[in-house]
Amino acid sequence: MISLFKFFAVLPLWMAQGLGWALGWLVFAISEVYRKRFVANARQAGIGWRQWLVAVGESGKLAAELPRLWFGQPVPVQWDGSHHVDEALAQGRGVVFLTPHLGCFEITAQAYAQRYGQSGHPITVLFRPPRQHWLRDLVKSARERPGLQAAPTTLAGVKQMIKALKHGESLGLLPDQVPPLGMGLWVPFFGRDAYTMTLSVRLAQQSGAAVVMTWGERLSWGRGYKVHFQPLKESMPADSMRATLLINQEMESLIRSCPQQYLWGYARYKQPRQEM
Q: Cys-Cys link to 243, which of 181, 190, 237, 255 (CB 3.0-4.6 A)?
């Protein structure tokens, strides 16, 4: 498996993504469970077949491009809305960046770390460690780099993020990821109740940190990525339910801006697991 990672890491980005496109369609074709969930989630959001068909290949690109992003040469990155980041950092209260399973969410933290993290504004990203022990160390070491630290979805990881905010640093989370039981609320997502994490809301409310939405658009033909940033459309409510609903609505808005790159096959409406 490590050899496969190294192989994809040296491929040109356009080639890795091309192989990923084929992989996405292969999985879609052979896995009935994945295919039904993919289509059902897209239809739940009101996405037409022309758009979700494109997302089939884009989902495969997400997996195939990771080795290049983790172990390969830097890729071209464009910026959209970087002034929102500058304004949020200037407040000095820390920044919580929220990213849905849209486009290449790996590139958002990398791009931030390269531009801001190495100049006094590091970022800590929350990630769920793989079940395979050998893969855990690989993923953690691949994600961590100057200006970028990884925090696992454990109590220790939460403490790490709280400490980072207290120092006025930045955090990166995927709020449309299903949290463990007791760590979320059932809140509508595209019109259907989904168990939604409250961690991002609690961190922002308790610290007074600025909240910025972000996602990494995958440009065609391996030309790189465009990282988008935008602030919340309204202030974070004090009520946890209202605040979590607001985050879901913001996620929906981002996804509707480019449904072709959303990970529709993700089990967004599954039951939460019992423990972390």
A: 237
